[in-house]
Automatic annotation (TrEMBL), chain A:
InterPro entries membership: MetI-like (IPR000515), MetI-like_sf (IPR035906), UgpAE/MalFG_permease (IPR050809)
Signal peptide: none
Major location (coarse): membrane
Keywords: Cell membrane, Membrane, Transmembrane, Transmembrane helix, Transport
Xref: PROSITE patterns: ABC_TM1
Sequence intervals crossing the membrane: 12-36, 68-94, 106-129, 169-190, 202-222, 262-283
Localization: Cell membrane
Pfam families: BPD_transp_1 (PF00528)
Domain of life: Bacteria
Family, per entry: Belongs to the binding-protein-dependent transport system permease family.
Record's protein name: Putative aldouronate transport system permease protein
PANTHER family, per database record: BLL4140 PROTEIN
TrEMBL record, chain B:
CDD domains: TM_PBP2
GO cellular component terms attached to this protein's record: plasma membrane
PANTHER family attached to this UniProt entry: ABC TRANSPORTER PERMEASE PROTEIN MG189-RELATED-RELATED, POLYGALACTURONAN_RHAMNOGALACTURONAN TRANSPORT SYSTEM PERMEASE PROTEIN YTCP
PROSITE patterns, per the entry: ABC_TM1 (PS50928)
UniProt protein name: Carbohydrate ABC transporter permease
InterPro entries, alphabetized: MetI-like, MetI-like_sf
One Pfam family it belongs to: BPD_transp_1
Length: 296, 295
């Protein structure tokens, strides 16, 4: 009897959260039906015409979609790459600094951009790369012509990748700093006695020590290959750079919410989330088989 | 030999200091520019003369914001939203994480629930269907549209669930023998034992709600109901001259260029985050590590 009472308590505790999950997570999943319809809001999901795979066929025929897919992957891959390299290097740098006050100050400042929204940082980035902004002033000092960075298809992607790394590298280094404290100090003492200099200790003790966590973080970032960062690009792009900067998520927003082509937007979203879920499953498999962790 | 070695170490130390210092400046200077611009005269700001220190120091921009009703309305909407949203987030995270942290012999349905929760984490219907649900429920343009759709943070549930599992079983068993029911065990044993984890999640939620501008764009069409970040997104994108009704207003507008005004608004919007920043730094660093070393 008491056992059943306990079960009822547990179910009751789950109930409120499950109601919210059902309404705002599971019911919208039925919305993907729209991807297989020519959805017309006035008719609703039940009465709109079924078109089977036509929306998907349409996506694969328009030239935009290839460009958008490519933009997404290039920007996301660049961010993933810098998102591993820069925080690791920065953590290694910080680890070599022995003066506590300096280290603490640096940490306080470099973690800050992580907590600011892209709405705020977009204003900062836009000013720095503006036509009359500091970077162009520097260029004119060196007698180069100013460039319209934010309107240039050549510069837009590198700027997105670089500024994302600028925002996140400090915060991203925390996990590696934690891993660095876990390395046995005895190893360094032994190496110092053997006459290993700073560079050799870094190469033969520190790097191998944090290699497992680097590999895990890399694997876990794999599913992000289709997430090029909606908030950043939405706040920084403009029609001039759609060619190089329009990504899947911004495309879904414009087509779905602004042009009200619900079916098309849902179909694009479905393709993205299927690939994303597949990548998460693969990454989780890799992490669980090669380490004692799971992603969840 | 020994002396030489010491000197080598010394130069590499300086090099490391310099590189780190440059990286720090890279983060700091752009932010300082915004602050400096907000305290500069509009002429200097439009001419692009402001670097990292104010030029022709003035607080005109801030004085002007004091009279800006829409700004403060949006500010208050954001404050209310953070309070409501975080309270709801925490309540649901705690109540869900506790039963989920039980194993299948203790809670028979745990397996089914966890599958549901993970499924919700992996898949979503996307922006458009969610918008239609919010619309059907009649939440558009109300503050609830900013709070309810993101009431359950599945990632946070998993984080707290893993933390609950690390609480010693013996504590719970002792309480059970004393006749405590699950709700009492949760409130008197699990909650006090997982304060740092809950504090971390709490801060996650506060920052998330404060910084979220996109819910406002999606669900709110009346500008007067915008939360602060959505409002700032709007003013960064457009400059509305239609509000200028007479010469006096126009003079005010010209006195404070949009650049200094926007900078001042951005600075004010960031102040609440700066106030809780010491807490953020303390808990986010530990929280991240706790989340990372889970089994």
């Amino acid at each position: 009897m008491r056992r059943w009472k306990k079960q009822i308590y547990y179910h009751a505790l789950m109930l409120p959260g499950m109601i919210f999950l059902i309404i705002f997570s599971f019911v919208p999943m039925f919305g993907i039906i729209m991807a297989f319809q020519n959805y017309i809001p006035a008719k609703g999901i039940l009465k709109s015409k079924w078109v089977n795979w036509d929306n998907f066929k349409f996506i694969f025929t328009i030239p935009d979609s290839k460009q958008i897919f490519l933009n997404t992957i290039i920007i996301a891959f660049g961010k993933m790459l810098l998102g591993i390299i820069v925080p690791v290097c920065f953590a290694l740098l910080l680890n070599e600094i022995s003066r506590k006050v300096f280290k603490k100050t640096v940490q306080t400042i470099v973690y800050l951009p992580h907590f600011l929204s892209w709405v705020v940082l977009a204003a900062v980035v836009q000013y720095i790369f503006a036509y009359d902004g500091p970077i162009n002033s520097l260029r004119s000092l060196l007698s180069f012509d100013p460039i319209m960075f934010m309107g240039s298809n050549k510069w837009f992607r590198p700027i997105m990748i670089f500024t994302e790394s600028w925002k996140e590298f400090g915060y991203g280094s925390i996990i590696y700093l934690a891993a660095l404290t876990g390395i046995d100090p005895g190893l360094y003492e032994a190496a110092a006695i053997d006459g290993a200099n700073r560079w050799r200790r870094l190469l033969h003790i520190t790097l191998p020590g944090i290699l497992p966590i680097i590999l895990i973080m890399t694997t876990m970032s794999l599913p992000n290959i289709l997430n090029a960062g909606f908030d950043q690009i939405f706040n920084l792009y403009n029609p001039l750079v759609y060619e190089s900067g329009d990504i899947i998520d911004t495309y879904i927003y414009r087509v779905g919410m602004l042009q009200r082509q619900y079916s098309l937007a849902t179909a694009v979203g479905l393709i993205k989330s299927v690939i994303g879920a597949l990548l998460i499953a693969i990454a989780n498999k890799l992490v669980t088989t090669h380490s004692d962790r799971t992603m969840f | 030999m020994k002396l030489k070695k010491r000197k080598r170490l010394h130069t590499s130390d300086i090099l490391i200091d310099i590189v780190t210092f440059i990286l720090m400046l890279l983060c700091l200077l752009p932010l300082m520019n915004v602050v400096a611009t907000s305290f500069s005269s509009s002429a200097a700001a439009t001419a692009g003369k402001v670097g990292i220190l104010p030029v022709d120091f003035t607080v005109n921009a801030y004085r002007k914001i004091l009279d800006d009703h829409q700004f403060w309305r949006s500010f208050m909407i954001s404050v209310v939203r953070v309070i409501l949203g975080t309270a709801l987030n925490i309540a649901l995270v705690v109540t869900m994480a506790y039963p989920l942290s039980k194993n299948r012999r203790e809670f028979y349905a745990q397996g089914i629930y966890i599958k549901f929760v993970l499924f919700a984490m992996l898949f979503n219907g996307g922006m458009v269907p969610l918008f239609m649900i919010v619309n059907k429920l009649g939440l558009l343009n109300s503050i609830w549209s900013l709070v309810l759709p993101q009431a359950v943070g599945v990632g946070n549930v998993i984080l707290l669930m893993n933390f609950f599992r690390s609480v010693p079983k013996s504590l719970e068993e002792a309480a059970e023998i004393d006749g405590a029911n699950p709700v009492q065990i949760l409130t008197y044993i699990f909650l006090p034992a997982s304060k740092p984890c809950i504090a971390t999640i709490c801060l996650f939620c506060i920052v998330g709600h404060w910084n979220d501008y996109f819910s406002g764009i999606l669900y709110i069409s009346k500008t007067s109901n915008y939360p602060l970040q959505t409002y700032i997104q709007l003013i960064s994108a457009t400059f509305d001259l239609s509000k200028v009704t007479d010469i006096e207003k126009l003079k005010q507008y010209l006195m404070v260029s949009t650049r200094t005004l926007n900078s001042a608004k951005i600075v004010i919007s960031v102040i609440p985050l700066l106030i809780i920043y010491p807490l953020l730094q303390k808990y986010f660093t530990t929280g991240l590590v706790v989340g990372a070393v889970k089994e």
